[in-house]
Amino acid sequence: FAAYSANAGDASQFSDDGGKKDKEIVFVAKAVVDRLDELDPSQGVVHHEGVKIEVFGALPGEEISFTRPVKKRNATLVEVMKASEHRALPRCGVYGRCGGCSLMHMTHEKQLEVKHQLALDVLRQEGVEPAEVLPPLHAQQYGYRHSARPNVRHLEDREDRVGGKVLVGFRHKWVMGSQPVDRCAVLAEPINSFFQDAADVINRMSVRDKVPTVEVMMGDTEKALLLRHLSPLSSQDKRLLTEFARAQGFHLYTQAEGIDSIKLFYSPTGFVPSAPPVEVSAEPFSPLFYTLPNHGVKIHFNPTDFIQVNSEVNRKLVDQAIEFLELTKKDRVLDLFCGLGNFTLPVARYAKSVMGVEWQEYTVQKARTNALISGLTNVTFHSDDLLNPKGLRWLKPGKVQFNKMVIDPPRSGAIAVLERLFAEHGMRPDRIVYVSCNPETLARDLAFLQTQGYATEKMRTADMFPNTNHIESIALLQHIEPNRKSTTRPAAAAGAQ
């Protein structure tokens, strides 16, 4: 385990402290791991001399040794003398130093079980008890991410190291700075070989110390790289970038200032995007797209647009939402926080009509274009800040009746918009499908919906981010008449699907 344990000393060459060592007194101890931390399953909990100590990478039942600064409760795992049956060897040489993944030391099956149980525990703390618990949705453990945003660091000349070198990598887990990487175990293979080549190219550019980040992403067939630069590119810089993009097969975008400054600099296919702002038409505005083949939907996106990074689990999640809704051609559906139409457009295949609501107008324009590309005419989109207390003013009470709803909010949840929908608009959809990336706000919002006459009929987690602590969930709520109990069978034990 020492080869990939979290050791700030090993990583100090990449930190901003110049490699200075921690001056605190450190002691070494041995213990048996009691359990995982309730909210952070990457941490094993031990008790030593009456003190609770958290050890990154330790699993329940293991006999370990660790080091800990005297005045701190976080320790560094040194050795595993007796390993758990759930221990796995990470496929990453910088695991424990890179700030991306936190559960690679745990088998995938155990990750699914632990995160699933954590989500259920959080729900129950808020008094939410799903009538039926379905097994987790999941796909491959590695090579699943379709986007990433590495940092770019330019090392200045210093007495303790040679400067003038560009490093491309991710946020360091323990110290200020970045962890350089050559490959990323969770990044999809078509976009996994650019790190060193990108660093070499940027190192040769005149603006090498003015490139803070690059962003890489891919769709079903095409891939792209967005380079942010804080100073104008020289003609030599442009030549270097063109050669790099051609060799890698990237659609290369550049960004000099805000989001409006993003330009398609080079396209290996000769793609020409529509001029901004995006015009609503059946013509694609980007070479990047993903499909939802079970529903005949194709969604184009630009480099900075939000999409789910795990395409296979996203497809399963959409399929599950469609199943939960039990759509017919009589249904009118409201989709809140709809984005580019990830749920809106497949729902439209089976409903009478769908209305999608999203904050940014340019995202709404793209969603409208995606609807036309997929041949859907029973969809409308509105731009509105759903987190603003004054939002939804255009939705007049009683004017449009929706009998089903999909909601996929940010991590902060949707309590404000739900309160307005019920209090100001008198809305009572028969079914609500709630998709969440935060168990805490999901529990809070489901508890509120229970006070409005809803029962949580079904719930399951989705392993959108394997090897991390992040938990995606989907729940079905049904409006229950007074004195009528839920008809769904009692909660079942969860295995993975």
Automatic annotation (TrEMBL):
<feature type="binding site">
    <location>
        <position position="308"/>
    </location>
    <ligand>
        <name>S-adenosyl-L-methionine</name>
    </ligand>
</feature>
<keyword id="KW-0408">Iron</keyword>
<dbReference type="GO" id="GO:0070475">
    <property type="term" value="P:rRNA base methylation"/>
</dbReference>
<dbReference type="GO" id="GO:0051539">
    <property type="term" value="F:4 iron, 4 sulfur cluster binding"/>
</dbReference>
<protein>
    <submittedName>
        <fullName>23S rRNA (Uracil5-)-methyltransferase RumA, putative</fullName>
    </submittedName>
</protein>
<keyword id="KW-0808">Transferase</keyword>
<keyword id="KW-0004">4Fe-4S</keyword>
<feature type="binding site">
    <location>
        <position position="337"/>
    </location>
    <ligand>
        <name>S-adenosyl-L-methionine</name>
    </ligand>
</feature>
<feature type="binding site">
    <location>
        <position position="408"/>
    </location>
    <ligand>
        <name>S-adenosyl-L-methionine</name>
    </ligand>
</feature>
<dbReference type="InterPro" id="IPR030390">
    <property type="entry name" value="MeTrfase_TrmA_AS"/>
</dbReference>
<keyword id="KW-0489">Methyltransferase</keyword>
<dbReference type="InterPro" id="IPR012340">
    <property type="entry name" value="NA-bd_OB-fold"/>
</dbReference>
<keyword id="KW-0479">Metal-binding</keyword>
<feature type="binding site">
    <location>
        <position position="358"/>
    </location>
    <ligand>
        <name>S-adenosyl-L-methionine</name>
    </ligand>
</feature>
<dbReference type="Pfam" id="PF05958">
    <property type="entry name" value="tRNA_U5-meth_tr"/>
</dbReference>
<feature type="active site">
    <location>
        <position position="437"/>
    </location>
</feature>
<comment type="similarity">
    <text>Belongs to the class I-like SAM-binding methyltransferase superfamily. RNA M5U methyltransferase family.</text>
</comment>
<dbReference type="InterPro" id="IPR029063">
    <property type="entry name" value="SAM-dependent_MTases_sf"/>
</dbReference>
<dbReference type="GO" id="GO:0070041">
    <property type="term" value="F:rRNA (uridine-C5-)-methyltransferase activity"/>
</dbReference>
<dbReference type="InterPro" id="IPR010280">
    <property type="entry name" value="U5_MeTrfase_fam"/>
</dbReference>
<keyword id="KW-0411">Iron-sulfur</keyword>
<feature type="active site" description="Nucleophile">
    <location>
        <position position="437"/>
    </location>
</feature>
<keyword id="KW-0949">S-adenosyl-L-methionine</keyword>
